[in-house]
Design goal:
The protein is an alpha+beta fold. The chain has 7 helices and 18 strands. The strands form 4 sheets. It has a 6-stranded antiparallel β-sheet, with helices on one face. A 6-stranded antiparallel β-sheet has the order 14-13-10-7-16-17, covered by helices on one side. Strands 2-1-3-4 form a 4-stranded parallel β-sheet, sandwiched between helices. The two termini are 35 Å apart.
Length: 269
């Protein structure tokens, strides 16, 4: 008896977005297409679920912060990765050329075309978009701390807290002291404007871009490009936001890029 071919495996984070469509609707449509699914439950580790996936394309439906751990397993397993925009920002899906408002349509990726893109790393941890240090990272940590308080007042308090912090971070980039309150390390080039990131034109340039600025609301950015950067701090650690998720990283932080290491699937055409 022939076994039905599995078109791929999709992990769904039901808590990632605004649930339009719902996680159940996304799961039903994926399974109708032959894609096996797993909806994350409270306390489950996404990496462990990804490692248990059957052979074939490996996908993640979630926000930017949910994608990299699954992409890491896809890279390790030498299988294609599928990103389904199902979060609040979905910058990576946007830069892949997906419609961020159409997770159902993004399921076409499982039967789509393969591309090769770069994979960034911070102390060996994979990131798909960027790692921020300084003011923006503090905002992300503050947002996570008050993630159930969505009022404007909470955001204003966060900015007030940041404004009281000392200016420069006291960092060194490749042993060069810099005076900056914000540092952003990106996989490929962004258009950077205040706290807003524009689209990346390429995901396969093979370069890291490091943007730094001094002000709380900076207008001028200093840019460095290269394949490797080391960022150090006298404190021995830094608050960071990796693809928009809060983390604490030990310093020095070694940033590297693996050119075209990650196989991704996108809808045909």
């Amino acid at each position: 008896m022939l076994t039905a071919r599995v078109a791929g495996f999709l992990i769904i984070n039901p808590r990632a977005g605004d649930e339009r469509p719902s996680a159940d609707e996304l799961r039903s449509e994926a399974e109708r297409r032959g894609v096996k699914t797993h909806v994350l439950q409270e306390g489950e580790g996404v990496a462990e679920i990804a490692r248990s996936a059957p052979p074939g394309p490996l996908g993640m439906a979630g926000g930017d912060g949910s994608l990299a751990p699954v992409a890491e397993i896809a890279l390790e397993s030498a299988v294609p990765f599928v990103a389904i925009p199902f979060g609040t920002r979905n910058h990576f899906a946007r830069d892949l050329g997906l419609d961020r408002d159409d997770p159902i349509g993004a399921l076409d990726s499982f039967a789509g075309d393969e591309r090769r893109i770069d994979a960034g790393r911070a102390n060996e941890r994979l990131f798909l978009n960027n790692v921020s240090l300084g003011v923006y990272a503090r905002l992300v940590h503050r947002r996570e701390h008050h993630r159930r308080r969505r009022a404007i007042l909470a955001r204003l308090r966060a900015f007030a807290l940041l404004a009281q912090q000392p200016g420069p971070l006291g960092l060194r980039i490749n042993d060069e002291p810099i005076s900056a309150r914000i540092v952003l390390v990106a996989s490929n080039a962004y258009k950077v404007d205040l706290f807003s990131l524009g689209e990346r034109q390429r995901l396969d340039e093979g370069l890291l871009h490091v943007y730094s600025a001094e002000g709380l609301l900076p207008g001028d950015w200093e840019e460095r490009t290269g394949e490797r950067f080391e960022i150090d701090s006298g404190a021995g650690w830094l608050r960071a936001a990796i693809d928009g998720e809060p983390e604490r990283l030990d310093t020095p932080i070694e940033f590297t890029i693996e050119p075209q290491a990650l196989r991704v699937l996108v809808p045909k055409g």
